[in-house]
């Protein structure tokens, strides 16, 4: 059986890592002959699947892009097409009548979108959270949370950051691309009141200069930009609190990783945070004062608050392993093939 994954994004983030994880997963490659259609920049990240480069920077209605995609799929002749995110779903929805063969069509929606018409024609729509599926019109919708495996050998004690970064205060960690939607400006705005904490910002992006200027303007000596790091698990396991302050999220891998490491999390009300975390750990989007109050509560009484998170820690252990995610996705492939 032939599986073709389709990715139209050429950024670097959770979506792209998710698709590469599927393309390289041994369980999927054992069951299917896997092909990946994606921008050429991902070619060297694919270790097992057959890779097919597609420049998807053009409009989703661009005839050259559509023509090339049709020809690629005709050459592959997949039994299952799995499109990831809105643009790929829209492209597959548009060109499917032109393919000249039938196959199962599955799409995964990775973030909240206003226009989800492209997902309506798929046999199955997978959502990485309940919230991202709210706007999707399709009779067969299923939530499959992002799964990760945490290498226990990478876990570090609290003094790791004191040794590597010379930081001795309590550690508040945020991670992600430095872009508007992540709202790291909220955390910077309250950092001056978190005088007993070091705020560590991991990631790169177009707003780094602007955010660093704001820190300098406010004369904050407890905010540190660590840039891109390959030791995210080490940093996370050595932190006292992980914070998600975004305006929107599909389902952040960092939430899963933190909970699987038993690191407390404070999050804005994005994705399925309100279904997973205690109410006091979830604050309204954009509410700086509520964010400060929740962080302050976690920092001031960590043991009591960590106890309240036990159900969330347990849920993450039981439901968000990589194998669990892969098993659920494979079941959807099987179901789609049987239904077809």
From TrEMBL:
GO MF annotation terms: glycosyltransferase activity
Sequence ranges assigned to domain Glycosyl transferase family in this UniProt record: 164-312
UniProt cross-references to SUPFAM superfamilies, sorted A to Z: UDP-Glycosyltransferase/glycogen phosphorylase
Domain of life according to the entry: Bacteria
GO biological process assignments: carbohydrate derivative metabolic process
Domain Glycosyltransferase subfamily 4-like N-terminal: 13-151
Protein name in UniProt: Glycosyltransferase
